[in-house]
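Pasting as-is:
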Amino acid sequence: MRSKKLLVVMTIALILVFSLEAAAQAKKINNIGQYTFARVRGKIPTPEVMKMLVERYSADIKIGFEQAGYGFLYEPFIEQLKTAQFEDTTWNVGETVKWMLFRSKGMVKVSGELEWAGKKPVEVFAIKVKDGFKTYTFIIPKPCGNIALKGMVEEIPEAICSLKVSPAKANINDPITVDMSGTQYAKSMKVEIFDKQGNRVASKDLTPEAARWQTKLDNPGEYTFKGSAVNVAGKPSTNPCEAKVYINYPPVAKVEPSCTTCTNMYGKPITFDASGSSDPDGEVTRVVFELQDPSGQVIDSYNATSKPFTWQKTLYKEGTFTVSVTAYDSDGAVSAATEDSRKSFTVTRKKFFGVIEAGAMLAHGGSQYDLPSYVPYLYLRPGFFAWLNPDKVSMTLTAGAGMPLKGSPWKAVIMGELLANFHFGKVYLGLGPGFSTKELSDQYNRKSGVDGVGQLGVTLFNNYVRMSHLFFEFRAPIGRNFEDHHKMGIGFRYCF
């Protein structure tokens, strides 16, 4: 019983298989023109006539394409037919078409697969319609104007790589834009960057949807950007696809101060020379100087825009200063900080000076001896000057001789003094002890001794290395008769 059921099932299965195979086979036809889609009048149809018929029956063609399941091809077919090349060819015996539009009882119909089984080939027009990467071949038998799909070929074009890189010249770490959006027929793209020695320094995978990339290069030199593209079939592009970028070498900054141990250069110009700055592949166009004080604070700067790139600066402060320079080239590249671009120097102020004082002095005479009230003297006193607190407090030590402008009994005198000077801008007041010998012969009872000395002076000239003063001086005796021993005068002091 079970064997009979199995036999029945196998028989039904075989019948279904044979039926499907028979349905899948192309239907053979040996005549054409009985079910015409659009009758062609005349013996020799032309492409112009065919185009006219297609335009006339466009609505029916749309119905037929939709029935065949190719509605998506209707618009490309109608549009491309206007400029399509009609090829004279034949539908040979044994060749098949996928389907054919025909008309039966006035209605548009679509056949299944058909095989031409006539005695001789049928003359047809062949036209090609493209949709995406697919090319469809249609034939139109000349006698009947039916439209048949003969076949389809998928033509995947090779990818065409396009690579644009900008800018072509840049500075270190400037943004560089890679653009492969012009690449055609690509599924994916890739760009690789190689240095001049051929070493790969970077790469990036791109897609048609994300075809741009921005990168930076941190070393100078020439770089080659190589692009490649792969089509949907996985075949790489073969057309040349590369660009070159040159990364500018930055300039090299160098500075030399006119002195590093700038002794007594307070108030004197110091020159900073950056003419030794250079650029390996261009030209230095400007140099920026920056000056820092001993605490590290920037106190001044200077922008030199022409050669020889020097800066002269006068400092009114002692200590160790630092000058640094930054060089710029014609492409805007900036130098890096190096030992040569940053130098320290120490500025000192002159505090000890040699002194020459000269002037005129009046020494008191004495009426009791039938002497004139005052006798003029000329004096010359060498010595020393020292700043205790520059521009505020100083000290002078001088000693020298005074010569009377009258003869006996007047004698030459020896004078000396040690003064503390208090400066108020250009004016100063000096106070301190002094010493002077007697200015008359012994019979006049004059004495040598200590004086209290006062000076009121004004600075005539001061360039911090040389100074000159004009002063009034008064010498009052200590421990001796004031009437007989006081003196006064004016003087000129030169400090060197």
